[in-house]
């Protein structure tokens, strides 16, 4: 329950959580009823809420929320709608096709001006194929429901903007979809600054809570709502809601300002970063902002007149705030959408930007090009950002493009040079290759938590799963840095590479992703003196050419000897700390054992003792 807000805390806690838990903690604290139905990658939000409710954890008002699992997402949305009409603070969590099943109720919730927030781990919709991975095609399908839409770009923002959304919906009566990228943000583990009850109390006005109760359907105070209407009044009633939606941008910015005053973390509806006299600007929302910011740091050092505009509030689209956020010197913009809308003039964000500039830009508006990126969690990296800016520099940039793929069918793709980017030297990057359900991912999540809790380093963990899940290869991407980490893309040049199954060395790109001089850890049953002969000639050449330092450990034998056959995760976790200088080995071993006690304590002392013995044997081996 690490993501929950400490009811007795006065100082912001340092939390190591994923995006799902960060958002769910806020939603739980500010809800009385939570209707859930599981769907990847939003399921952990509902699971956390259910766990906290069963444990008797109280919300912001001292009561335990009622968590109800329905039989479909449509049922969950219906339960949310009914609960809201009864005056209860209510939420739900969903993604992809699940969000589509909620659309009819979202139109009603928004049309009836009912304050609410639903939290979405944005995911691809099934089109030519199903995908469990992330993009914005689901939330874009909800953009005309009348729900306001607030986009988070990181784990920290998933927490912060969740609170801002709950505050703004109470102030405006317009319900919100708060969304963040599925897997890339929902499942990324990172250290964040948590919230205190005082901060929540400063943003949530209990008088507004009472107002929602006063508007609840009550047989003792009958009102007419949800009628059938004829042409004589329907149009007028729809337009009568305009003032509520027009008030949303100011209400959101007001909540952001109050939040910044409490926490020191400022947000704007449109956050601009870059040269004040920028001529070229990139516009996007979601986790791709992290990659854009990483590239911007290098571009600014070169003196490039460029900038990045991050979209926070997507609906209502605040035209004046958007235009004011741009430098007056801008000559061209590239707008990137993480969705595809076949048959349209352009994707949703692109068309909004073009319309906003046509309406409000003083004089002739700058050139705007649109691009698609990152569908189904396709990688988006700093070199891809560079490629988009290179397109803007052409004499006649293409109006519509793709980045991150090679489009040899319609020729929309821009050429990317991966050699234009190197990660900062002060960041330790580690890759771990394992198999689904072998414990590698769980151990690495604990590693991120151990480093975050026991050092001054910032920590980030992202885990690449095959959609076939159990038994398929998993790759854990871990970063540790003295500076905040905003790199929302996979590691290509690692300082430490571990193959938790020796056979994965030949089935993966593990050695290709090791940077020169990196440390490599192999779990193998072969004696150390014969490991070299078991490597292919190509693997041997890579090790020599890159001067890699290779270590071997027989983790399977150690695990079997202590009664944990097949469970090598704690053995290899201990080896990682022994081979890096992130944490003193003795201190690391103690922290690993604490994590073992937390993780396996409920399964009995024998399991804990076996894991502890495995850790002790690992360092010696």
Structure description:
With 621 residues, the protein is α/β, with parallel strands linked by helices. Helix content is 40%, strand content 19%. Helix 17 (504-507) links the parallel strand 19 and strand 20. Helix 1 (19-29) packs parallel to helix 6, helix 16 crosses helix 22 (585-600) and helix 20 (555-561) packs antiparallel against helix 23. The chain is globular and about 85 Å long.
How would you summarize the topology of this molecule?
Blueprint: E1 14-18, H1 19-29, E2 33-36, H2 43-54, E3 66-69, H3 73-85, E4 90-94, H4 96-111, E5 117-122, H5 137-140, E6 148-151, H6 155-172, E7 176-181, E8 189-193, H7 197-203, H8 206-214, H9 234-240, H10 242-246, H11 248-263, E9 270-274, E10 280-284, H12 288-302, E11 306-311, E12 313-315, H13 319-325, E13 332-337, H14 348-360, E14 367-372, H15 382-393, E15 400-402, E16 428-435, H16 440-454, E17 458-464, E18 473-481, E19 494-499, H17 504-507, E20 514-523, H18 528-531, H19 537-545, E21 549-553, H20 555-561, H21 569-579, H22 585-600, H23 605-620
Parallel strand pairs: 2-3, 2-4, 4-5, 5-7, 6-7, 10-11, 10-13, 13-14, 14-15, 16-19, 19-20, 20-21
Antiparallel strand pairs: 1-8, 6-12, 8-17, 9-11, 16-18, 17-18
Helix pairs in contact: 1-2, 1-6, 3-4, 6-11, 12-15, 13-14, 16-21, 16-22, 20-23, 21-22, 21-23, 22-23
Spatial extent as radius of gyration: 25 Å
Net shape: globular
Ranges where pLDDT stays below 50 over 5 or more residues in a row are: none
Q: How far apart are the first and last residues' alpha carbons, in Å?
A: 35 Å
Number of helices: 23
Query: Helicity, in percent?
Result: 25-40%
Main beta sheet: 8 strands, mixed
Mean of all residue-level pLDDT scores: 93
- What is the topology, as strand order, of the major beta sheet? 1-8-17-18-16-19-20-21
Q: How many β-strand stretches?
A: 21
């Amino acid at each position: 329950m690490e993501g929950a807000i400490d009811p007795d805390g006065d100082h912001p806690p340092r939390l190591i959580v994923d995006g799902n838990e960060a958002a769910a903690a806020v939603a739980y604290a500010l809800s009385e009823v939570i209707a859930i139905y599981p769907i990847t990658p939003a399921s952990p939000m509902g699971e956390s809420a259910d766990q906290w409710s069963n444990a008797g954890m109280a919300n912001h008002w001292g009561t335990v929320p009622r968590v109800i699992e329905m039989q479909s997402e449509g049922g969950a949305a219906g339960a949310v709608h009914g609960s809201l009409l009864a005056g209860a603070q209510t939420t739900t969590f969903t993604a992809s096709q699940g969000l589509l099943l909620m659309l009819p109720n979202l139109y009603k919730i928004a049309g009836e001006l009912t304050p609410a927030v639903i939290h979405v781990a944005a995911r691809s919709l099934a089109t030519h194929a199903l995908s469990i991975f992330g993009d914005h095609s689901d939330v874009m399908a909800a953009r005309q429901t009348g729900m306001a839409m607030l986009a988070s770009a990181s784990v920290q923002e998933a927490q912060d903007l969740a609170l801002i959304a709950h505050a703004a919906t109470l102030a405006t009566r317009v319900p919100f979809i708060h969304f963040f990228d599925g897997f890339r943000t929902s499942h990324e583990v990172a250290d964040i600054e948590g919230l205190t009850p005082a901060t929540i109390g400063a943003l949530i006005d209990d008088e507004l809570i009472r107002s929602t109760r006063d508007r609840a359907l009550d047989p003792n105070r009958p009102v007419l709502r949800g009628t059938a209407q004829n042409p004589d009044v329907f149009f007028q009633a729809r337009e009568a809601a305009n003032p509520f939606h027009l008030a949303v941008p100011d209400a959101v910015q007001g909540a952001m300002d109050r939040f910044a005053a409490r926490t020191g973390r400022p947000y704007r509806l449109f956050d601009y970063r870059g040269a004040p006299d920028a001529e070229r600007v990139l516009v996007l929302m979601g986790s791709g902002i992290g990659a854009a910011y990483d590239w911007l740091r290098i571009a600014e050092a070169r003196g490039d007149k460029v900038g990045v505009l991050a979209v926070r509030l997507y609906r209502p689209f605040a035209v004046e705030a958007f235009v004011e956020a741009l430098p007056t010197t801008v000559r061209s913009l590239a707008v990137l959408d993480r969705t595809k809308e076949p048959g349209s003039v352009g994707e949703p964000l692109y068309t909004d930007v073009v319309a906003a500039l046509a309406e409000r830009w003083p004089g002739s508006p700058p050139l705007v090009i649109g691009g698609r990126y990152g569908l189904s969690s396709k990688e988006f990296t700093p070199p891809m950002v560079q490629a988009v800016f290179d397109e803007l520099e052409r004499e006649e940039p293409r109006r519509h493009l793709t980045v991150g793929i090679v489009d040899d069918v319609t020729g929309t793709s821009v050429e990317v040079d991966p050699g234009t980017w190197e990660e900062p030297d002060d960041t330790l990057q580690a890759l771990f290759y394992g198999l689904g359900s072998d414990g590698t991912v769980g151990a690495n999540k604990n590693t991120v938590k151990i480093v975050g809790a026991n050092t001054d380093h910032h920590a980030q963990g992202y885990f690449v799963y095959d959609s076939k899940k159990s038994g398929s290869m998993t790759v854990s991407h871990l970063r540790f840095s003295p500076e905040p980490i905003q790199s929302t893309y996979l590691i290509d040049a690692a300082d430490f590479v571990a193959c938790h199954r020796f056979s994965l060395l030949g089935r993966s790109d593990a050695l290709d992703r090791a940077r020169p001089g990196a440390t490599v850890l192999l779990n193998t049953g072969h004696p150390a003196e014969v490991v070299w002969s078991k490597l292919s000639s190509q693997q041997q050449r890579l090790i020599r050419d890159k001067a890699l330092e290779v270590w071997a450990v027989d983790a399977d034998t150690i695990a079997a000897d202590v009664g944990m056959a097949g469970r090598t995760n704690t053995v290899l976790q201990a080896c990682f700390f022994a081979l890096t200088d992130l944490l003193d080995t003795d201190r690391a071993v103690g922290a690993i054992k604490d994590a073992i006690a937390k993780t396996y304590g409920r399964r009995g002392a024998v399991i804990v003792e076996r894991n502890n013995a495995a850790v002790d044997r690992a360092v010696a081996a």
